[in-house]
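Tutorial handout. Part one gives the primary structure; part two gives the three-dimensional structure as tokens.
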Amino acid sequence: MGRLLAVALAQRGAQVDLFDKGSSDGKGSAARVAAAMLAPLAESAITEDSVVRMGIHSLPRWKELISELSTPVFFQQAGTLIVWHRQDASDAQRFTAHLERNCRNNTLLQLPQKLNNEAVRDLEPGLAERFTQGLFLPNEGQLDNRQLLDALLVELGKLKVHCHWHTEVHPDDLRKDQAYQTVIDCRGTGAQNVWASNGANTLRGVRGEVIRLYAPEVKLERPTRLIHPRYPIYIAPKENDIYVVGATEIESDDLSEMSVRSAMELLSAVYTVHSGFAEARILEMATQCRPTLKNNLPEIKTRKDKGLSDVMMINGLYRHGYMISPAVMDCTLELLASGESNTALELGLNITKEASDQEASLCA
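Part two.
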């Protein structure tokens, strides 16, 4: 969110400074570890309709945003394939019914297409020997998150955004300076203190674990998900035979290395999808914590205080950061321009205007 907004605002003529406690390559951020799948229908099985609507809004916006960058970024909209082993057919049936119900409730979603073995072979020939049926979710996509971070970095330089890397600051310190009209806080889990309510942190980290593989023998064309009662994995194929594999979601802000159990389950599951993964090379095992609010939904908070710069806090993108960030960005730009956002109202993005200290004392 920070890089997207910095580029968007600079393109519109604003003078922008970007502060980041990390490095310019994004190491140590959830944005670098993510698989960056853009799958509103697939995610509708586990999230609210507002997030699904944000994902639908964001898909065409990603095309526009990437086309405006001077550096190419891998973007694909070839749909999502869902497969399952025979013993998990009942789980697949429930999953299919859930998606079909969501499509009836949201006419912008396209019904999943049921596939027989021949149809699976047409989409992904390498999977037809192991899977006799599947589901195809049209129009869903993905991008290469690391290419995107690098491309945005190039744009920041071209737009003369002053970037302060390895610089950890608190938004209140920037607000006191009054050198800025608005301070936008996109710190993710680093902003837990400002999202605390009644002494309790409403913002938490949810741990995710992914493995990056080099697998030239596999040749999957699109993101593929495996329905499984214990580890429903996803496989996101990037360029040059790179695959990002993940599944685990742990209610913990632990940033330690991947556990043996998680690694074994992910690698075992991915091998059951395609035998070519047996000879894959493990490039990276990575963990990160995704910033998540109490209701698992994103939110924007704004606040004005006399004698301080305005502040806008954006957080809680959870596991849907890439899927919904263009929608959140569009709402943010509207708020900055007029103080209101019709897009947020249409999509169901929660926007909270906090009372200033002066207003709070008057109310008291």
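Part three, for discussion. The first strand starts at residue 17 and ends at 19. The chain has two domains: 2-32+145-202+295-363, 74-144+205-293.
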